[in-house]
Amino acid sequence: MTHDAGKAQQALETDIAIIGGGMAGASLALLLDKYCPQFSVTLVEQRPLPQSGPLQLPSFDARATALSAGAIDIFKSLDVWPVLQTHCAMIERVHVSDRGHAGGAQLGERDLGDAQSLGAVVENAVLGPVLLEAVRNTGARLLAPATVTNLEIGARGAELLLQVSGAATTLRAQLVVVADGAESSLRKQLGIDQRYVDYQQQALVTTVEIDRSHDGVAYERFTARGPMALLPLPARDGAQRMALVWTRPDRESSADEAVGVERLLALPERDFCKALQDEFGWRAGRILRCGERHHYPLGLSLSDEQVRSHVVLMGNAAHFLHPVAGQGFNLTLRDCETLAQVVARGVASNCAPGELHLLMDYAESRQRDQALTIGFSDRVPGLFSSANPWLQVARQFGLLGLALAPPLRSAFARQAAGLGL
Ligand SMILES: Cc1cc2nc3c(=O)[nH]c(=O)nc-3n(C[C@H](O)[C@H](O)[C@H](O)COP(=O)(O)OP(=O)(O)OC[C@H]3O[C@@H](n4cnc5c(N)ncnc54)[C@H](O)[C@@H]3O)c2cc1C
C-alpha cells in the first residue's frame, strides 16, 4: 500500500509510522506485520541501528526484563521465541522474604492455575538485536538514524518532518504511533499533558555473579527502604549470573544508616558486593562480583490522552511505571497486540488505520488492564510500610509473583480497587 512519493521533494509515504525503535516500537512493528501485513510500516529511530555490535538505544541497555507467560506467548506467536529462548533463564520459582523476618514464601508453577510458566528473564542488550533482526525480516522500512522534529495532524493523516543524515524529509502516514519514550518530545508537541508522581526512589541495576547455581529461582526481598529483586540469568563462561534491581531512597538520610544510591554507585566493587550481601542475605549464595552499575529514577507518568485522530501514544510515552514489579513492558506488549488486532479488524469494515473510532476502540479495550496494572504498580511504594492486611498479602506473594501470575495479580488488584474477589 505504500509508495515512495517524489524523491525530488524527498517526501515519503507510509500507512503506519512508528516513532521510536525501542522495545515498544520494535514489538509493535512485528505485531502489525503479523495481524495486518497489507499495511506498510515505517519505523523511525533517532539512534543508529547497526546490524551487528551493541545497540545504543535506551530500551536495550544494561537492564534485564522479566517476561510474563503472556509475553512469551506473544513472542511465540511472532516466531521470535525460539531464538530469544536460547538467551533466557526460565523462572522456576519465586522466593519472597522480608528483611528482619526468618523464613519466606515460595511461589511455584502450581500456584498459577492456568498459566503455564512463571516467565523468563532476558537481558535487554540481547532482546534488542533479536527484535530488530525480526523487524528487518518483515516488509517494514527502517529509517535510522532519523529524528522526527515536527509532527502535524491534518484531516487526512499525519505529516512528520524528519532529519535524515542532515537532510529534511517529509513522511506522511495515516496513523502515527508515538513510541519515543518517557520524555516524549512528540507528546509535548501535540500538547498532551501527563500526570507525574515522583516516588523519590531510585532503582540501582546491575548484574552479579554468585558462587552456585540459581536453579531458576527469582528472589524478591522486602526491606524497610524498598524491595529488591535478584532474577536468574543464563550462565556465561561458566559464571552463574543474576540481574539485580535494588530500590533505594533518592537521598541519603542522616537519621538512618541507609546507604543511598549515590554512595552505592561509587563504592569499590568489593564493598558494593558486601553491602548487597548484608542487605540481601545468603539465600542465593555468595555474591562474588558485579558488573557496571546503573540507576533509574522511579516515578509514575501517565499521559492524559493515548489516542487522537491519526495518533496513538505507546510504551513509556503513554505510561511509565515503577519497574520493580516488572510490568511495564509486559503491559506495553499487550497494548501493542490489541492495537494491531483492532487495526486489522478495521480492514474488514474498510476503515483506515488512523480513524478515530477505531483508535477509541483500542483505547477502550485497554482501559481495564491498564488501570489494574498501573494501579497495582502505583501502590508499590506504599507496600513496605503499610499495615493494611491486603498489602501484607501482597508482600507474602511478592510483587514479582503477582506480576507474573495474572490470577493473583487480578485478585489483589480487584481487592485493592475495592471490587472484592
Ligand atoms: C530499571 C527498570 C527495569 C525494568 N524491568 C522491567 C521488567 O522486568 N519487565 C517489564 O515488563 N518491564 C520492565 N521495565 C519497563 C521497560 O523497560 C519499558 O516498558 C520499556 O523500556 C519501554 O520502552 P519504550 O520503547 O516505550 O521507550 P524507550 O526505551 O525510551 O524508547 C524510545 C525510543 O525512541 C527513540 N526516539 C526518541 N525521540 C525520537 C524522535 N524524535 N525521533 C526518532 N526516534 C526517537 C529513542 O532513541 C528510543 O530508542 C523496566 C524499566 C526500568 C526503568
UniProtKB/TrEMBL annotation:
Cofactor(s) needed by this chain: FAD
Keyword Cell wall biogenesis/degradation set for record: no
Alphabetical keyword list: FAD, Flavoprotein, Monooxygenase, Oxidoreductase
SUPFAM superfamilies the record matches: FAD/NAD(P)-binding domain
Xref: Gene3D superfamilies: FAD/NAD(P)-binding domain
Pathway in which the depicted protein is active: Cofactor biosynthesis; ubiquinone biosynthesis
Source organism superkingdom: Bacteria
Domain FAD-binding: 13-345
Keyword Transmembrane annotated: no
Family note: Belongs to the UbiH/COQ6 family.
NCBIfam families attached to this UniProt entry: PRK05732.1 (NF004356), Ubi-OHases (TIGR01988)
Name assigned to this protein: 2-octaprenyl-6-methoxyphenyl hydroxylase
Organism field: Biformimicrobium ophioploci
